[in-house]
């Protein structure tokens, strides 16, 4: 029988705590749960009021990996859910609003992915995101070059940008916006991706065309579509090692000379939060949101 843990008055059965989920490092499910409990204070605000898609990997990244968008069977009745619009019709999805819900979800072994809009206002985007994805032999080093150009370009339109690692090969840029639909934000993001390609033709690419990718950075603007989700800040990733989609400073982006400089694991994050706090906290302040030109 799974051990029962009480989290803020909620009883949670936590299973297979000794199971190794990341064989490359021996990182166990118990350590995954400990990680999420440790970073909950900075993670939860980025999940709150957003419908969550779960990318589950219950047997580790080498096992079956699958998306769960609808409310999973067996979800406790105290976990908040909401009906959200989908192309195929309304769907009920999970909202991770508090620590018990976070620990319940973490016990499923999942990446957390969220939309660029809040569940109460699905017709208005409150984020713009760029997923900078390098094609080998390009790496996150080249992503940083593109990120710095995009930061300056967005600043010219009065939009303050923040960065985090993808937890995989690339870099994510995020900014708070207001007063625009996901469609309008997507159009604007695409226009900047096109501009980036024109400004840096040997480095940036706005199209996903595979044969164009080697040695370049794909500026994926399509994540702004209302139906799309992106890895939430601080989520663990289903990679060979327990890497994290970790917020980074612009100084770290500017000084990145090798891929390892921006490679962060679960064991690195508590110290970074202690040193920096939540580097993405300004995204949560409505007064800091910019307007598209």
Automatic annotation (TrEMBL):
Lineage top rank: taxon: Bacteria
All residue ranges annotated as the DNA ligase D polymerase domain in the record: 28-279
Enzyme Commission number(s): 6.5.1.1
The UniProt record lists the keyword Cell membrane: no
GO molecular function: DNA ligase (ATP) activity
InterPro entries for this protein: LigD_pol_dom, MtLigD_Pol-like, NHEJ_LigD
Coiled coil: none
Position of the signal peptide: none
Keywords (A to Z) from UniProt: Ligase
Pfam families in the record: LigD_Prim-Pol
Descriptive protein name: Bifunctional non-homologous end joining protein LigD
Species of origin: Streptomyces africanus
Lineage of the species this protein comes from: Bacteria, Bacillati, Actinomycetota, Actinomycetes, Kitasatosporales
């Amino acid at each position: 029988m799974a051990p029962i843990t009480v989290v803020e008055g909620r009883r949670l059965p936590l299973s297979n705590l000794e199971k190794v989920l990341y064989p490359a490092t021996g990182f166990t499910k118990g350590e995954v749960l400990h990680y999420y409990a440790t970073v909950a204070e900075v993670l939860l605000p980025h999940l709150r009021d957003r419908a969550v898609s779960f990318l589950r990997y219950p047997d580790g990244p080498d096992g079956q990996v699958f998306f769960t968008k609808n409310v999973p069977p067996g979800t406790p009745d105290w976990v908040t859910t909401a009906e959200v619009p989908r192309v195929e019709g309304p769907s009920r999805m999970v909202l991770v609003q508090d620590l018990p819900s976070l620990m319940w979800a973490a016990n499923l072994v999942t990446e957390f992915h969220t939309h660029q809009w809040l569940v109460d206002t699905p017709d208005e985007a409150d984020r713009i995101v760029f997923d900078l994805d390098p094609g080998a032999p390009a790496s996150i080093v080249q992503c940083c070059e593109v990120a710095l150009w995009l930061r300056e370009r967005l600043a010219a339109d009065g939009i303050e940008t923040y960065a985090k690692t993808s937890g995989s090969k690339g870099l994510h840029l995020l900014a708070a916006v207001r007063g625009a639909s996901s469609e309008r934000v997507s159009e604007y993001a695409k226009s900047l991706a096109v501009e980036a390609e024109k400004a840096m033709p040997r480095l940036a690419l706005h199209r996903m065309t595979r044969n164009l990718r080697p040695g370049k950075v794909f500026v994926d603007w399509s994540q702004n579509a209302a139906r799309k989700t992106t890895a939430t800040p601080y989520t663990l990733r289903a990679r060979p090692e327990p890497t994290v989609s970790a917020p980074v400073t612009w100084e770290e982006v500017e000084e990145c000379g090798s891929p390892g400089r921006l490679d962060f694991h679960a064991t690195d994050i508590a110290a970074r939060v202690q040193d920096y706090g939540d580097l993405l906290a300004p995204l949560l302040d409505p007064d800091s949101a910019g307007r598209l030109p």
